[in-house]
Amino acid sequence: MKKIKSITIFGTRPEAIKMAPLIKELEKIENIENKVCVTAQHRQMLDQVLELFKIKPDFDLNIMKSKQTLTGITTRVLHGLEDIFEEEKPDLVIVHGDTTTTFAGALAAFYKKITVGHVEAGLRTYDKYFPFPEEMNRKLTGAIADLHFAPTSGSKNNLLREGVPEDRIFVTGNTVIDAMNFTVEKGYVFNNNELNKIDYDHKKVIMVTAHRRENWGSGIENICKALKKIVQDNAEVELIYLVHLNPIVKDMVYKILGGVSRVHLLPPLDTKETHNLMNRCYMVMTDSGGLQEEAPHLGKPVLVLRSVTERPEAIKAGTVKLAGTDKDNIVKMANELILNSDEYNMMSRSINPYGDGRASKRITAAILQYFDILI
């Protein structure tokens, strides 16, 4: 019986969330022997996801260092994977999305002439510095990849314009929807008791994340000032800000929002807590990429705290709007959703363009097709 040897590689929490359902699907296929390699680009937050999905890595590069640089991450991943690839000699390396781990993993596989599969391929802003460094990580990975698992037809069209052969592109939906079918529970009780005390039925609870590198400094400052005004202007609003552990972000957030009434500043939650908080909240404000896909699946409007997004399908569908980082604009757009029920309902009832929860099955089928295996 022909058997494919594959290695799935990821290093951050968002990658782990989206790779977990695919790993579970690959485990079901007798013709595929998949091993898991984590770089631990983000150690603590990554481990939470591994525990949730009961994934035990076969290889752990454990590269995270204090004040790590992009160059340091890239070189440590390349060095670590070189020995693993030499020993394992996989037929296929699977990477996800747009992290530095993703690019370095694809590059390491290219150096060994190993087939590369790219999950969540084809997203573009066409501005190499927004988001930074993710836009170029994704484009460079796309230039290396042999199999492109595009979440939407728009992503597929981006790849076609760049000259990728159509028979190497597979429109699958986004694997994060697969993951949410596992994590979201009716009547969920939070491990963080502060979240259990919030009146989700009578308050308009806004969930916030904002930490991206391109927003460091004035961007985060403007966002925080806008959030403070939104809460002060709307007595029915309760705000939960999941504050990134990076001191550059954390110090600014606590300086402006610390001690403000009806503002809860919490550390990042694990995946299950985050998804269930999203399910209970009124709306989401974020500069994250993944939340732009996750929140609409639960019928939650999203204001993106960035000037551009590599996920234009959600904007076209009406589930997401770009608010940027201008204080007055953020306040104006948030107030429209808080005060105007028609505006809120229009966004919350729009159809999420990111799939039906079967992306992992489609990716697995595409891999078997590529390697000419019939099951």
UniProtKB/TrEMBL annotation:
<dbReference type="InterPro" id="IPR029767">
    <property type="entry name" value="WecB-like"/>
</dbReference>
<dbReference type="GO" id="GO:0008761">
    <property type="term" value="F:UDP-N-acetylglucosamine 2-epimerase activity"/>
</dbReference>
<comment type="similarity">
    <text>Belongs to the UDP-N-acetylglucosamine 2-epimerase family.</text>
</comment>
<feature type="domain" description="UDP-N-acetylglucosamine 2-epimerase">
    <location>
        <begin position="24"/>
        <end position="367"/>
    </location>
</feature>
<dbReference type="Pfam" id="PF02350">
    <property type="entry name" value="Epimerase_2"/>
</dbReference>
<dbReference type="InterPro" id="IPR003331">
    <property type="entry name" value="UDP_GlcNAc_Epimerase_2_dom"/>
</dbReference>
<protein>
    <recommendedName>
        <fullName>UDP-N-acetylglucosamine 2-epimerase (non-hydrolyzing)</fullName>
        <ecNumber>5.1.3.14</ecNumber>
    </recommendedName>
</protein>
<keyword id="KW-0413">Isomerase</keyword>
